[in-house]
Structure formats: C-alpha cells, structure tokens
C-alpha cells in the first residue's frame, strides 16, 4: 500500500518529502502553518488517510478550548459521509452517564494516553460505546490523547486533544496502516495545536478587549505609545445602587446579578456594531466610530442602542421584582469627539483604550443624571451631529462639568 497525496510536491514548502509517505507528513506541516480551521484540517486529514489506503471508517476529535462559553470543540468524520458531527461542548453542559462510562473518561482519570481495542468477535468489551461501534460494523478502534501543556484545571479539558480512530476492515487495521497512523497522527495533533493556539489567543483577546481592538493587537499594534486619533460617539453607562448592594449581598449573588445587568448593557452595543472598550466596575465605556459613514445614521444607531439598553434593564428589573430580588437603575451619557485610541501603560503592562478630553467629559456628564432627574444625558456636540434624531431631544441648559473649563450644553430625551 502506497501513500498518494496528489500534487504534494508543488505545495510542500517547509518539509521536502523524499518518499510518498513523507508527502503526507509534509502536507500536514503545510496545512498546520496555513491558518486553516481545525475542523477543516481534521476533515481533510481523514480523507487523505483514505486516499493513502487506510481503511478508516470513523475518526473523532475533541479539542480543548479557552473560551467564555465553550469548553471543547468536537468533530466526527465517517467515510462516505464526511463530517457528521460538529458541536461545541459548553461549560454549562453537565456530563451524562455516557461520559463517565466512556473510554475517554477512563483514560483521563487514569492518566492513560493510548488505548486500543479489537472490536471483532464475541468477546466482552469494557465500554458501551465500543459495543455500539461493533454493532455498526467496525472491527478495530484506538484512542490517542495529546496533552498541549495548557494546564487546565478542569479534568475534561486537561488533555488538549483527544483523538479516536476506527476501521471496518474485517481483520482490523493492518500493520502498514498502524505505521502510517502512528507516525501521522502526532503530526496532526501538532498542526491542530498550532492552529488552535492562535484561535485561542484571538478568542481570549476578543473576550477581554473586544473584536476590533483584538484585531489591532494581533496585527502587531502592541508598541507603547502607538495611538490613532479617531472621531467617535462615546457611551458611558453606569448602574445605580451597586455599591450599596455590594455591602449587603453574598458575593456569588452579587456577581451573578452584575453579569445579568451587564448583559443588558453590552449586547445592544455589540448588535448595533459598537465596540465595548471596557467594563469599569458597574459601568461600561463603549464607542461607535465615525469612520466615513453618515454621522447622522451612526448617531441615530447609538441613541437607539441606549434605548434598547434601558428597555433591557427595565425588563430585567421587572422580573427581579417579581422574584423579590434587588434591582438597579441605569444612567447613560452620550457624547461625541476626537479621542486617542491605542496603547497606554508601562513598559510591560499596556492597556488598549481611548483617552482624551471627550472621555473625561462623558464620564462627568453621567454624574449629572440625578441632578437633572433623567437616566439619559446627551451632549450638545452629539446633537449637532445627530441631525436625523435631534428632534427627539430636549435641552437641559448649560452645565459646568467637574474639571472642564467651559460649561457644556446638555440634552435628554
């Protein structure tokens, strides 16, 4: 049996192959450096193994994830069907009996990284899933686990990559097939780790600093003092009553409550195309960049976003009142101005944020919500740009902001 990887010599830039088997290895190296999704790498790898003459019936991988919602990505491939399972395992998913009776759980809890079972014959199998595979016509199965060294605390995630492979050849995998699989699967795992590491970094950055900011950081904008000047709508939102509640509520209930309110504040911004720059305790700073599009439309979208935020908090408060739980109100300030957007900090610890007078002003504006008996304050500069929705705003006069030299005209709905 020979390995036949079509046109591999034309694409193998990193590992020149000297024989047909090495062409498969070379292909894996090239794909691992290409930026392809792990899902696609896995699918193509299974197909390449079949092309190479391996009687592979089923392949499965579970790839650990560092993600706020997902703990692992799971894919299953079957010969003649392609990818038949493409699912995310969530942190909130509770393991069922099938997991605890699986060979994977057995291997992880006993620190075993390789397990092989012959499925043909009438002998008793020690895992129910293997009985299912035999009933489906599979004759040979093995699992190999690769620890990526990511030091996960969660038992289900500490492996990095779990792989399993099954044949339906009557005699099982041949010795030559075992040789190809034994040499190529570790290379596949290394390629998968390479691809997953970058996607993990991007996921973590997007989670903590936002999609647009993470794109800038990953593109190399990490030098201290590297800033751009942008014109943007600024939204500063702050929850009222959090400090008082933090002194009276249990910590776990307090954090759960804060997360629920921040969801109502953040989701409308993201759905409207804004960028959440940071959460500041019980507050949030977000921007809508005026990047050449119609400023009036962007301002209208930003103003509508604040209304959606207030509506979400109101609905949340209603449900919490019915459950006899404490509630919080939301104050929002909206401003517009030129700000500096980029890296600020020490030599070893940077923050990618916005700075400038407009940022200070929008923060000071929000502090006047109680004095003006409103939960939304808008600056005169915003009203000048928001020509399509200015008619919905009423003047509240000129007010002196703390630390700002000249009084600023303010508006509310």
Report a brief summary of the structure:
With 413 residues, the chain is of the alpha+beta class. It has helices at 8-11, 20-32, 38-51, 97-100, 103-109, 128-135, 175-209, 211-218, 242-246, 251-271, 295-322, 357-366, 380-385; strands at 56-64, 70-78, 82-90, 114-118, 140-146, 161-167, 227-240, 275-280, 283-289, 329-345, 350-355, 376-379, 394-399, 408-412. Strand 8 and strand 9 (283-289) form a beta hairpin.
Topology:
Blueprint lengths: L7 H4 L8 H13 L5 H14 L4 E9 L5 E9 L3 E9 L6 H4 L2 H7 L4 E5 L9 H8 L4 E7 L14 E7 L7 H35 L1 H8 L8 E14 L1 H5 L4 H21 L3 E6 L2 E7 L5 H28 L6 E17 L4 E6 L1 H10 L9 E4 H6 L8 E6 L8 E5 L1
Parallel strand pairs: 10-12
Antiparallel strand pairs: 1-2, 1-6, 2-3, 4-5, 5-6, 7-9, 7-10, 8-9, 10-11, 12-14, 13-14
Name the shape in a single word. elongated
H/E order of the elements? HHHEEEHHEHEEHHEHHEEHEEHEHEE
Radius of gyration: 28 Å
CATH class assignment of the largest domain? Alpha Beta
Quick one: CATH superfamily of the largest domain? Nucleotide cyclase, GGDEF domain
Q: Give the distance, in angstroms, between the N- and C-terminal Cα atoms.
A: 76 Å
The number of distinct structural domains comes to 2
- Please give the count of helices: 13
Query: What share of the residues does DSSP label as strand, in percent?
Result: 25-35%
């Amino acid at each position: 049996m020979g390995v036949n990887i079509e046109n591999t010599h034309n694409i193998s830039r990193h590992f020149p192959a000297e024989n047909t088997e090495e062409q498969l290895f070379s292909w894996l190296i090239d794909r691992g450096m290409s930026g392809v999704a792990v899902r696609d790498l896995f699918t193509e790898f299974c197909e390449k193994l079949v092309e190479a003459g391996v009687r592979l019936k089923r392949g499965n991988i579970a790839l650990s994830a560092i993600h706020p919602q997902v703990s692992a990505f799971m894919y299953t491939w079957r010969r003649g069907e392609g990818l038949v399972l493409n699912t995310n395992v969530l942190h909130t998913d509770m393991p069922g009996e099938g997991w605890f009776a699986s060979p994977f759980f057995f291997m992880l809890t006993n620190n075993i990284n390789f397990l092989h079972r012959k499925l043909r014959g009438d002998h008793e199998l020690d895992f129910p899933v293997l009985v299912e595979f035999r009933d489906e016509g599979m004759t040979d199965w093995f699992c190999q686990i690769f620890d990526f060294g990511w030091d996960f605390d969660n038992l289900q995630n500490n492996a990095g990559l779990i792989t399993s492979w099954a044949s339906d050849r009557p005699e099982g995998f041949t010795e030559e097939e075992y040789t190809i699989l034994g040499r190529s699967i570790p290379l596949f795992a290394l390629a998968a780790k390479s691809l997953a590491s970058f996607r993990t970094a991007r996921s973590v950055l997007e989670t903590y600093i936002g999609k647009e900011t993470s794109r800038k950081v990953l593109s190399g904008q990490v030098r201290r003092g590297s800033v751009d000047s942008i014109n943007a709508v600024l939204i500063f939102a702050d929850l009222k009553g959090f400090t008082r509640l933090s002194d009276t509520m249990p910590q776990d209930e307090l954090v759960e409550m804060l997360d629920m309110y921040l969801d109502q504040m953040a989701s409308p911004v993201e759905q409207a195309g804004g960028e959440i720059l940071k959460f500041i305790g019980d507050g949030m700073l977000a921007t809508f960049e005026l990047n050449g599009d119609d400023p009036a439309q962007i301002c209208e979208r930003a103003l509508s976003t604040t209304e959606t935020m207030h509506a979400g908090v109101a609905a949340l408060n209603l449900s919490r009142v019915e459950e006899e739980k404490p509630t919080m109100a939301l104050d929002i300030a909206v401003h517009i101005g030129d700000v500096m957007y980029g890296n600020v900090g020490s030599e070893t610890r940077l923050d990618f944020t916005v700075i400038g007078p407009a940022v200070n002003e929008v923060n000071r504006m929000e502090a006047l919500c109680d004095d003006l008996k409103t939960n939304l304050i808008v600056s005169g500069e915003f009203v000048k740009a928001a020509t399509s929705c200015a008619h919905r705003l009423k003047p509240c006069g000129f007010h002196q902001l703390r630390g700002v030299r000249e009084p600023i005209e303010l508006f509310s709905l």
